[in-house]
Design brief:
Elements lengths: L1 H14 L24 E6 L9 E12 L7 E11 L8 E7 L18 H12 L3 E5 L15 H18 L3 E10 L1 H16 L5 E7 L6 H8 L10 H13 L16 H7 L4 H11 L3 H4 L4 H4 L1 H6 L11 E6 L7 H13 L4 E6 L6 H5 L1 H12 L14
Parallel strand pairs: 4-5, 4-6, 6-7, 7-8, 8-9
Antiparallel strand pairs: 1-2, 2-3, 3-5
Helix pairs in contact: 1-5, 3-4, 6-7
């Protein structure tokens, strides 16, 4: 398959990725707002259809965050802040800093512009029943100016951490006691946020991280995926590859999509700029796109800046990490998630990993709730977390 021939390029590429930078001339020039990261700029009530069941005060806020593409300057970002109903406990509600999964790169796909999915509504309602408020960022470029730099871990981390800062500073009833929680793209964002926090937001009292379906890419893991059979009528990972390329196009003006995608895949690439995730998934299915018929041999070389932006700054987290993986996950293949567990454990992170037998990417989210409840109780109360680095399907 064509994808196989890219592995040679990947192995050479990743060694030099850290030396690569998108030139300043390739970054779209935007005027930086005045203020500091984590400053609230506006707030309004969420429509009833956009909040969570049995919630109390529910807001859509706009705040300033450091531009994660350049690492300097400020950009506006939007987020949802949803408090449980009733009187807050002494000290305020602790916070779930929610990192959402893939929705798309178009503004209309931003979570705060849409009702919650049934899956996420159930999941976050359970967190609220545990006594947490929810602060969920939309990420830079989703619902605000510019293209969303999809899977850029620094962008995601800065946005999540600054969103929590803005909520703590402006919304009464919140407590600086935080669980970082995310799924899929947001699982990676959650890990990244915990990794960046000690240097970027040391004032935040983060107690632990819960991630499901979290991606992790290395040359070895790419090779593993590349050598797997690719004879399915379509590959769901193509959806994320199309968004990754669209995100790169927003800040690298020299990016040429024709250097990554075949003619067969180009209509889906163009459509990805405006389609939300379920719509693009339908397009990928309809066009029958998989690695072998969609990607050119040098695709990894030409996606290099975006691949570099997916890397985590460290694999050692200061607080314990819960990882939930679906045994039958087709969207973020389990080897990528097991690789994250292995690397984090080797770096000294306290990891409690779970694999859910027979479950896919979506099913794992709510199936993980009982295990994450026990984990959360332990980290919030300062108990010792039992590590599990070699999980068996359960």
């Amino acid at each position: 398959m064509r994808f196989l021939s890219s592995v040679y390029h990947v192995s050479r590429l990743v060694a030099g990725l850290c030396l690569m930078r998108v030139s300043s001339s390739a970054i779209a020039a935007t005027a930086s707002p005045s203020g500091t990261a984590g400053t609230l700029t506006s707030s309004q009530s969420l429509p009833d259809a956009f909040t969570l069941p049995d919630a109390g005060r529910s807001l859509r806020i706009t705040y300033l965050s450091t531009n994660g593409i350049t690492g300097k300057g400020l950009v506006p970002v939007t987020a949802e802040v949803i408090l449980p109903a009733g009187k807050p406990p002494a000290g305020g509600w602790p916070i779930v800093a929610w990192a959402h999964g893939t929705v798309g790169v178009a503004d209309r796909c931003a979570p705060s512009n849409n009702p919650w999915s049934a899956r996420n509504k159930r999941y976050l309602s359970e967190w609220m029943k545990r006594g947490f408020a929810v602060v969920g960022t939309d990420y830079q470029g989703l619902g605000t100016s510019g293209m969303h730099p999809y899977l850029n871990t620094r962008v995601e981390a800065y946005n999540l951490l600054d969103g929590v800062k803005a909520a703590l500073a402006s919304v009464p009833g919140l407590q600086n006691k935080i669980m970082i929680v995310g799924q899929s793209q947001g699982g990676g964002a959650a890990f990244a946020s915990a990794a960046f926090a000690p240097t970027y937001a040391p004032e935040l009292n983060i107690r632990g991280t819960v991630a499901t379906g979290a991606p992790y890419i290395t040359p070895e893991l790419l090779k593993q995926i590349a050598t797997a059979p690719d004879n399915a009528p379509y590959n769901p990972v193509m959806v994320y590859t199309l968004y990754l390329a669209q995100g790169l196009s927003g800040y690298d003006k020299g990016f040429k999509p024709e250097s990554v995608f075949t003619a067969k895949a180009m209509p889906a690439y163009r459509a990805a700029a405006n389609l939300c995730v379920h719509e693009l998934t339908d397009k990928v299915k309809e066009d029958g796109l998989n690695f072998s018929n969609s990607l050119k041999p040098d695709f990894a070389k030409n996606l290099a800046p975006a691949l570099q932006a997916m890397q985590y700054p460290t694999m050692h987290l200061a607080q314990p990490l819960f990882i939930g993986t679906g045994e039958l996950d087709k969207d973020v293949p389990p080897p990528l998630q097991y690789g994250l567990v292995k690397a984090a454990c080797a770096a000294g992170t306290v990891v409690q990993a779970h694999v859910y037998k027979g479950l896919n990417h979506d099913q794992t989210v709510n199936a993980s709730l009982p295990d994450s409840a026990s984990f959360t109780q332990e980290v919030m109360s300062g108990q010792v977390v039992t590590p599990q680095c070699t999980p068996a399907p359960e």
